[in-house]
Specification:
Four copies of one chain form a homotetramer. By secondary structure, the first copy, chain A, is α/β, with parallel strands linked by helices. The first copy, chain A, has helices at 11-23, 51-54, 107-120, 146-157, 168-177, 191-198, 214-225, 254-261, 270-274, 280-290, 316-329; strands at 2-5, 27-33, 36-42, 59-63, 83-85, 88-90, 96-100, 124-126, 160-164, 180-183, 204-207, 232-236, 266-268, 294-298. Chain A is 33% helix and 19% strand. In chain A, 63% of the residues are buried. The interface between A and B is large, with 57 and 57 residues.
Chain lengths: 337, 337, 337, 337
């Protein structure tokens, strides 16, 4: 940590800053850069909040030289991590597509979706049973009763199943019935939920919060990782901006940026990232080209009748066509579907 | 709900949209505006997701004419609501200041803060026991052991106490020991937590999410209100933008906008809204002038030693000076501290 | 245009709104949607500012049913436009790469860059002579004296040349020496400059403003088109968001969205869109996959010595490798380099 | 300037960075902070683009320790600047209200507006003759023919007149007829226009760009100041965010932040900052409370008939009431209207 001192900082002020650093078990050392005076603080800086110094008299700016996340960082682990979802690999060399409806709505809809996903060759079925909805008056998901349905479909199709947990109770159900726990964008900083996921044996799909920086996202991953669960897959799903042409602004540029900082795999959700089914194929291909490890994509047997997010769901036909295109493109990017 | 049809929409497409509307118990009626064709859908539109129509062939745009939130709306209740926090009123005619440290850190720090808050004349003490922190390696709050400390301080000072709940378990503790439940910005769309707060007898302080629209915020309030808890106070605390001059961008313009849509009281948190103690007094006065019903403001007996957010905490002296200034200004805005 | 009336709007208020509409040569007609009352206004609505009604008593909301831009719209021209830059085509079936240094700095640097661009097979050389720089103390470009240099290089290499105009005077020089006029992001709403470009015979490369919506961008295109210049090429270069991992947030999702609304070609600038040379190849491929018609990419013979934007410039070697990869990928997207 | 080296940076890489620094007339010196290695670069760093180093091998991060703007900074001038607009002072101790219609539309409208502004006690009339409009089909202002009208009104009322220049030609007309040159938000980085304004004898009102950081805004001021014109007044008018409740997000928090960095006066435009006349009085008072030096506010004798921005214009009655309120409040903030 480096502290840039104000030009007129007094000796008493500098002494107070140094004393504060020592209290926090840091070692302060004066540094000069031309006419500017700085203090270098070394030791266990990651546990120290820069705010501890920012308001002290004589301080112009506090610069954190090391990122606060550890276990998610390339410094902790240099090689790319491959996460195993009940035998399905997510990581380098593969391009893993997880597909299915936004919400599981009925036995018939779920079966049609699962069959469409399997027929198109995607190995993982997605589908929400607990839906975080903006309005309390919208459909909130089938809840617990949907798990039996999914058990049957998993057994019949051999597909793996990923679904969202929204609190401790639903997370326990997901653990008992699914192959991967999804943490949604709205819960990316629900730290109680992250800690609970960190104690799970199942891999975790961690969606990016809609206004989360890359650093905050990797800090959220560290909540799970530091709980003892090494299997975290990131998922970019669009951020909130001033744009009105799409539901969210899909930030594909975060992929090469994340690759530099973290060893964790990254998926892209072009369905939430655009909000428009007709824009999904273009952005799915762009995600592959930008270096993603796979997709989370919404497929519904009858999007016009979906109880949620129908406007961003692909039909089975369009999904099948997309899978063919991705299979053709993947080798150029060193990947196989 | 109005559906604008594409210029070349076919009779078959229009028929399909009408059929879908009827399935959802809505009544479709054709409407013309010059050369443009629309369908008006009436009935219980609030429970219907516009996405049900947005992706159907022939649809150009779906316009929701009524806001999805109900109980928070001026249409549900025309007069301003006053919320009672164990005898302290928040609403028209008053300007209620809730102050205290970001985190409760120790008996001495808490006592000094409480005494400073009381001495300056603020009726409610704020202080975090469960802290949602971006990094898992930062101080996470005293947790459960802090409640006994707060019980003592409440008894000694007569101050009311508001503190944050981050999950069901902590909410139960807050209910048992505090006078008001704070739902933090990161949990504004933690719908399980909102539903649980809706079943509480305590009033709820609902902070705005850092990328939440006003409509989403009022929907979140409806989660609490529809659970049976009518006592919700909103709190603007800054939104996330491209700005770098402040920790968040305090959106005071949301106050007059919210006044038109909702009857609920609104506080402002200038501490998180700026992140800089030296900017807090200006924005606290601006909040009063913009029409806020009060403040949530950070005060720490020794900001340089705070375990969190020290750079945005006022000293007792500066807080006292701010309270004097607010007391002087309030009557011009029809309020009293 | 549709006006949603407030629930208690009086007959007098509605009459006033109708009268105002008639003054503006619009035809008002009452429309009902269930319990809601609306007024449909038809006629030449594109020339009418919705603000004319928004503040009138009794008005709840004004909805513009038709987009304000005309000549850029698919309704004006259904088929994709191909723009010709001195024989180089930009549009469907091709993928046109424009490359070169951020700034033209010296005869040697310009020659090295031009040779590298030509050797890699890109047909258009980019290079700034007038540089809009955030600080007045930064290098501002060679200005007028650079044009002679570019004349020589164009003659020697056969490359087309695109460079930025920042005011009327520089636009006249660009017209005299280059093959295409670039309008930079900061000038996307410099309407005097757009009008002047609309009177030019040269095609125009119109970069998106850093906080421009798609609709505003197409309105800017209409300024050029309505001046009589039909040759406008759009260029996405990243928008401003809260992100810190990149200089700008490259909004590739705008490509499929723009395709629906406009017939104009769209390029992508992954250099400004990321600000990091190491991220450029991934985003260049993603742009192709998302449906772009080409790239604007920075190449510098010695990025470490660039007078501007060195950190986002590719070396000739990396650019050559990128061109090979794009040439290999393009056919899968129905394009050829 | 400080360069943080990558952990594995080689001696050859560090040597290359040092050599590059020396070429740019900077003095490199190694600095250590615990296990981290840095290079301190001193000398005329303000003229050096950090990008010159950011892409070099071995560089992890480049930190600029000094702000790039000079003449606008508190370091250049410690005391607050007062700008004189033909005898009307803008700066400490005063609260200067500039009011009038968005556009000058006709002799009658201009006269009514001017009389209303004068009657309410505001000393400066605002009114656009050249209007930067998003669509080329919207009313673009009266242009040159309006100046004669304004000459008459100035003579009759004694009001000072501020109006916008959008290019060199209109700036010359503004110089000849008005008392202050307005540079609009869309032209905040029109550097040719800023340089031209820097050569003017008239004071300049520099509106903040809709996605400009505070630092970029002060750099824009430096373009004017470094041209020899010391009379720059800043004007905050709202930034672009994800918000939908207002036309722009008025960033009042920028006022205390700017006060620390610059000596220039700052006005606030609550009309553009909200886009809704009913929200203007609250935000006007909030601007005063936040420390602004005055307002730029839209007043129209008949907002329902305004040719532009009618929905955000106050009627003469509401403006008069606002002026009375401000006059009453100002002394508490050490100001007088």
């Amino acid at each position: 940590m480096l502290i840039l001192l104000k030009s007129g900082a007094s000796a008493v002020q500098i002494e107070a800053i140094s004393a504060r650093a020592k209290e926090l078990s840091l070692i302060p050392q004066p540094v000069r850069s031309g006419s500017l005076e700085l203090l270098s603080l070394t030791g266990a800086t990651a546990a120290v909040d820069p705010a501890a110094f920012a308001s002290m008299p004589g301080v112009a700016r506090v610069m954190n030289l090391s990122a606060p996340f550890r276990l998610a960082s390339r410094e902790f682990r240099r090689e790319d991590t491959t996460v195993d979802v009940a035998g399905v690999r997510i990581g380098p060399g593969t391009f893993t597509v997880m597909a299915g409806p936004c919400s599981i709505e009925s036995p018939a809809q779920a079966a049609d979706a699962a069959n469409a996903v399997k027929a198109a060759g995607a190995p993982v079925l997605r589908g929400g049973l607990y839906k975080p909805r903006t309005s309390p008056y919208s459909f909130q998901g089938l809840g617990a009763e949907g798990f039996a349905l999914m058990d049957t479909l998993r057994a019949q199709t051999g597909l793996r199943f990923v679904t969202e947990a929204i609190d401790e109770q639903s997370l326990e159900q997901v653990e008992a019935h699914a192959d991967m726990i999804q943490i949604g964008a709205r819960n990316m900083q629900n730290f109680s939920l992250l800690r609970r996921a960190g104690r799970s044996k199942l891999p975790v799909l961690l969606k990016r919060g809609m206004s989360a920086t890359l650093e905050e996202w990797l800090n959220a991953a560290d909540y799970v990782l530091s709980g003892g669960n090494p299997n975290v897959v990131l998922c970019e799903r669009g951020i909130r901006t001033f744009n009105t042409h799409a539901r969210n602004t899909l930030d594909l540029g975060v992929i090469p940026a994340a690759r530099e900082l973290t060893h964790l795999p990254i998926l892209v959700d072009p369905s939430h990232g655009t909000g428009r089914a007709t824009h999904v194929p273009a952005m799915a291909c762009a995600a592959l080209a930008a270096g993603a490890d796979g997709l989370l994509v919404e497929v519904h047997p009858d999007p016009g009748h979906a109880l949620s997010d129908g406007d961003q769901s692909l039909t089975p036909e369009r999904f099948n066509a997309l899978m063919k295109l991705l299979r053709q493109l993947a080798p150029a990017f060193g990947r196989a579907l």
